[in-house]
Specification:
It catalyses: L-alanine = D-alanine. The chain is of the alpha/beta class. It has 10 helices and 19 strands. It has a 9-stranded parallel β-sheet. It has a 6-stranded antiparallel beta barrel with strand order 11-14-17-16-15-18. Strands 12-13 form a two-stranded antiparallel ribbon. Helix 8 links the parallel strand 8 and strand 9.
Length: about 350
């Protein structure tokens, strides 16, 4: 019998969060970002749950787009990293995938392939990861026109570096750069809005927004949790309490003896660890919950287990389910304790944790 460590996925909460993104998108249409296996929630079930709501999906790479087709869905799929080989353009044309071209090499592949998938161009507005510099954009478009594929150019995208910080001026600066760069090409669509941009007052989202983490209930904003932004948690990570004991005052628990009981303390062991994707750097005082009561981790997280202080839940017994994050404890809270972000936690849950959908 398998252990009862499980990630419970609330697909109705996912749909509510998508509709919340729509309500914040102004006149923009909303493509659902389902890359990284649906942010760890399962790309097939996530995309299927949004079928009928999302007119377009966005992924990082071709294999993720193919997974959407394997789920039986026919929406257009945007490939945010474009293609990784020239031969992938044939798959894009056949599959109805829209690669985002960001380099001269990708344009050369398009030129040599003879294939004509619909595609986007990425503008480097200041993040300096991928994209064409605004100065080079006119020559790139002219080259596409000479190739006879400018009719397949859907529009332009960029990505914000600091939209999570409402006090930063960089998002406004990037928006201005993007507007100037794309102004000569009227009639083409534009897409700039990550999750965080949905929460910036007066931020234009143009034709298509691209929410990711907010669909899954995680916060895209510095200093805010998902629930504080009106987002519903989608994943509840749960594992069984498999042992309890009283640790006498002065004794330690776990590797390195990093936590020492200052009094006789009832503790429990939970069947989850960093081998399941729970963050190893979540140390003592990281919150968890059992039977609706908040408790805390103690000591170091092991590969397959972690320890919790049961003082606040005296009724807890072996076999009870411990919530590591979900309805009672937010994933953003755990991420803050582990020195990371909810994106990493959600995408890091490993394959040995069963996903259960409702």
């Amino acid at each position: 019998m398998p252990r009862s460590t499980v990630a419970r996925i609330d697909l109705q909460a996912l749909r509510r969060n998508y509709l919340a993104a729509c309500s914040r998108a102004g006149g923009a249409q909303v493509m659902a970002v389902v890359k990284a296996d649906g942010y760890g929630h399962g790309i097939g079930p996530v995309a299927a749950a949004l079928d009928g709501l999302a007119p377009k999906f966005a992924v990082a790479c071709l294999e993720e787009a193919l997974a959407i087709r394997d789920a039986g869905l026919q929406q257009s799929v945007v490939l945010l990293q474009g293609v990784h080989a020239g031969g992938d353009l044939a798959d894009c044309e056949q599959g109805g995938f829209e690669p985002v071209l960001h380099s001269v090499q990708q344009v050369e592949w398009l030129e040599r392939s003879g294939k004509r998938p619909a595609f986007w161009l990425k503008v480097n507005s200041g993040m300096n990861r991928l994209g064409f510099h605004p100065v080079d954009l006119p020559s790139v478009v002219a080259r596409l026109q000479a190739m006879g594929v400018d009719h397949e150019l859907l529009g332009f995208v960029t990505h914000f570096a600091c939209a999570d910080d409402p006090d930063s001026t960089m998002t406004a600066e990037q928006t201005s750069v993007f507007e100037r760069a794309t102004a000569p090409f009227e009639g083409r669509m534009k897409s700039v809005g990550n999750s965080a941009a949905h929460f910036l007052p007066d931020q234009p989202l143009y034709d298509w927004s691209r929410p990711g983490i907010m669909l899954y209930g995680g916060s895209p904003m510095v200093g805010k949790t998902g629930p504080e932004l009106g987002l519903a948690p989608v994943m509840s990570l749960e594992a069984p309490l498999i042992s309890t004991r009283v640790v006498p005052a002065g004794e330690s628990v776990g590797y390195g003896g990093s936590w020492v009981a200052d009094r006789n303390t009832r503790m429990g062991m939970v069947a989850i660890g960093y081998g399941d994707g729970y963050p190893r750097h979540a140390g003592t005082n990281t919150p968890a919950a059992i039977n609706g009561r908040r408790i805390r981790l103690i000591g170091r997280v092991s590969m397959d287990m972690l320890a919790v202080d049961l003082t606040a839940a005296p009724e807890a017994r072996e076999g009870d389910s411990v919530e590591l994050w979900g309805q009672t404890v937010g994933v953003d809270e755990v991420a803050a304790c582990a020195g990371t972000i909810s994106y990493e936690l959600l995408t890091g849950i490993t394959a040995r944790v069963r996903r259960q959908y409702r």
